[in-house]
From TrEMBL:
One of its GO terms (molecular function) is inositol-1,4,5-trisphosphate 5-phosphatase activity. This is phosphoinositide 5-phosphatase. SMART domains: IPPc (SM00128), RhoGAP (SM00324). The keyword Ion transport does not apply. It comes from Cyprinus carpio. GO terms for biological process: phosphatidylinositol dephosphorylation; signal transduction. It comes from the Eukaryota. It holds the Pfam family RhoGAP. Belongs to the inositol 1,4,5-trisphosphate 5-phosphatase type II family.
């Protein structure tokens, strides 16, 4: 049970020697940080690597189950070793392919496969479930021998979707990180983009997962930990890399001859790793088993469907780190539930362990040394620069500059960016300093990244000229003086984050308009010349995006909105439309109407009455977008869209909550929008608003 599982982890009290543990501790004061810093520098004096011949054995397994229920014992896969492993890390993909799992991330198959795994574990040991994490059909289970649980700490889990719209969970990854003794370990289970020709999309999925998965630390003021910041990284899953440049019959002939070396030379993942495009620094064991995809379900026969897929090693296991030895890497052909075969890898991993007597002795020596130090000197640092200018900052495009801080004083120092007088935070919301606090030993330096990022919350005031990219950072030294860093820049106004009413008044691109003109328009909605300055019915930017999708993508399968695997401008335009709607400072249905919309969500006529009294430009945009979505539904035989899917995607954008929504509100918002996707006679006049 989860309560028992949590107790196993929380009772762990590892000795604080590892760097990530140290920096994750609450900041007590200069003396405490100095002790931690010295312990880190002298770590080799009290730790040793317990490795190969006496190391810990990790069983890694991956299985794409193609939406099937468990129909056979998993023991031939999970209990295939002579002796029981210390750890099980078992990953599944396509656990559930139903629409409900996709939309609500809920599936009855989770407990079914959990039970199948539990029954399939090695019978000669007792195991505790430490963690389960799932995103739609991607699931990772972490079991450990009960006697090792007390040495596991800092358990965290994260998920990231890279599927529909580059965000949804039909593709993506789940990951866990934990501390075992004094080693940081991260495990990733991923399901990357499909289809032979989409290897570059798979490469991008890998990079997105590495960039977007960030594990929080106990001290929330410290930056989160990325995947590659761990001592050991274990990566498994359906990576979907295929065999290139060979016909299917040639591939099958090589498999029959067991000429895996020739076949492996045409493997996309091998080629991409050789070119150092993805998985840089990772290792994969020698593949001496036949491809694990694609079989006829329930058999060992290659795909006999009309598509006749070329066999491929889609299911892979890789690792990154030191003191790791692979004991085996194999597929398990006896399992026939899916069109994939499961794969396993047995790794022996050297773990950093603390010698408690040596630790105590080192700690006492450090404390005695600090007691002898004179700490009456004032800390001092020098900065590489004090003025920074960010040129041509754009909406949601990250820019960063680095300031080096060097401790040129006689004593260690602790630094922190502090708020200015009467301000709640140390910087404006579009600016961050990373790290924002830290510790510097004498004669050392740290690089601080000053990062500028304008999002939907900060763009409106920058677009209108009410705010500028200007801020002063105050770098404070404990027991020392303050240093001031000037950050300025110029922001290029964008239609993203601009109001509908403002955009309707603009006939030129917003970047070509003087800020004074935009400010005047925002403060004075009256037009000076009714003939030339008459507002447009809808912003030209919305018309251009919808017009493109209407002309070129309305019959496309799930349109570009629903398949980032479809390359080209349709996907880009669709994502831009969704981002545009999400960034509106006041949504299509303004915030002031939100409570009324929830109250009448079950009454179609009252819903339509609310739309009729919206401000004119908001009403025009709503009717225009609804007409476009209705047009998409007319082609559902081709694009496979339905009312539920479109409502799930667009409801939260058209009718956005001013605060965080709960599940009940989300359902009401979806119900409200669904009324308009079912066309009635009163809707026919808005068809005229569609591009011809």
């Amino acid at each position: 049970k989860s309560e028992v599982r949590d107790d196993l982890i929380r009772n762990s009290q590892p000795i604080l020697a590892n760097k990530s543990q140290m920096l994750g501790m609450p900041q007590f004061g200069l003396r405490d940080n100095l002790i931690k810093c010295e312990l880190l520098k002298n770590e080799d004096a009290y730790t040793y690597i317990k490795n190969y011949r006496c190391g810990w054995v990790f069983f890694l397994g991956t299985y794409n189950v193609n939406g099937q229920n468990p129909k056979e014992s998993l023991s031939p896969w999970l209990a295939s070793t002579a002796t029981p492993p210390d750890f099980y890390l078992v990953g599944f993909q396509e656990l559930d392919l139903s629409k409900e799992a996709f939309l609500f991330n809920d599936t009855p198959k989770e407990p079914e496969w959990m039970l199948a795994v539990y029954k399939g574990l090695h019978p000669d040991a007792k195991y505790a479930l430490v963690k389960l994490v799932r995103l739609v059909g991607i699931m990772l289970l972490f079991y450990v021998k009960a006697e090792h649980a007390a040495h596991i700490s800092e358990m965290e889990a994260e998920t990231v979707g890279t599927g529909v719209m580059g965000r949804m969970g039909n593709k993506g990854a789940v990951a866990i990180r934990f501390q075992f003794h004094n080693s940081d370990i991260c495990v990733v289970n991923s399901h990357l983009a499909a289809h032979t020709e989409e290897f570059e999309r798979r490469n991008q999925d890998f990079k997105d997962i590495c960039r977007r998965i960030q594990f929080r630390q106990d001290d929330l003021t410290l930056p989160p930990l990325a995947i590659m910041k761990h001592n050991v990284v274990l990566w498994l899953g359906d990576l979907n890399y295929r065999i290139s440049d060979l016909e299917v019959d040639h591939v099958k002939d090589l498999i029959a001859k067991k000429d895996f070396e020739t076949l492996y030379n045409h493997d996309q993942l091998k080629r991409q790793m050789d070119e150092e495009v993805v998985f840089v620094g990772f290792t994969e064991g020698e593949i001496d088993f036949q491809p694990t995809y694609k079989y006829d379900t329930g058999s060992d026969q290659w795909d006999t469907s009309e598509k006749c897929r070329v066999p491929a090693w889609c299911d892979r296991i890789l690792w990154r780190g030191k003191n790791i030895k692979q004991l085996h890497y194999q597929s398990h052909m006896t399992l026939k539930t899916s069109d994939h075969k499961p794969v396993s890898s047995l790794l022996e991993i050297g773990i950093k362990v603390v010698n408690e007597e040596s630790y105590k002795r080192t700690f006492e020596e450090i404390v005695r040394h600090i007691d002898r130090m004179e700490n009456d000197c004032i800390p001092s640092v020098s900065l590489s620069e004090r003025e920074f200018f960010f040129q041509d900052v754009k909406f949601m495009q990250h820019q960063a500059k680095t300031v080096s801080v060097y401790n040129d004083g006689q004593v260690p120092c602790q630094f922190e960016f502090i708020p200015k007088l009467d301000e709640p935070t140390y910087c404006k919301p579009w600016l961050t300093a990373n790290p924002a606090k830290g510790f510097l030993a004498q004669g050392t330096s740290v690089d601080i990244d000053l990062e500028v990022f304008v999002n939907r919350s900060t763009a409106p005031e920058l677009n209108s000229g009410q705010q500028q990219l200007e801020d002063i950072l105050v770098l404070h030294l404990e027991r020392g003086k303050d240093y001031f860093i000037s950050v300025t820049g110029n922001y290029l106004p964008s239609c993203f984050g601009s109001s509908l009413s403002t955009l309707c008044l603009l006939r030129e691109p917003i970047q070509d308009m003087p800020l004074e003109t935009i400010r005047d328009m925002k403060s004075n909605s009256q037009v000076s010349n009714p003939e030339t300055d008459k507002p447009q019915d809808i912003p030209k930017e919305i018309w251009m995006m919808v017009d493109h999708l209407f002309r070129y993508a309305k019959k496309q399968v799930r349109i570009a909105l629903f398949s980032p695997l479809l390359a080209g401008s349709n996907h880009s335009v669709a994502e831009a439309l969704l981002l545009f709607l999400d960034a509106l400072p006041d949504p299509v249905i303004p915030f002031s109407f939100y409570p009324q919309c929830l109250d009448c969500c079950s009454d179609s006529s009252r819903c339509r009455q609310i739309i009729s009294v919206l401000p004119q430009c908001h009403k025009n945009v709503f009717n225009y977008l609804i007409a476009f979505l209705q047009e998409l539904l007319k082609h559902s035989a081709h694009n496979r869209l339905d009312v539920s899917i479109l409502a799930s995607i667009f409801a939260g954008l058209l009718l956005r909550s001013p605060t965080k929504q709960d599940l009940t509100e989300k359902r009401k918002v979806k119900e409200f929008v669904q009324h308009f996707l079912v066309q009635t006679p009163s809707d026919r006049d808005i068809d005229e608003k569609l591009p011809e």
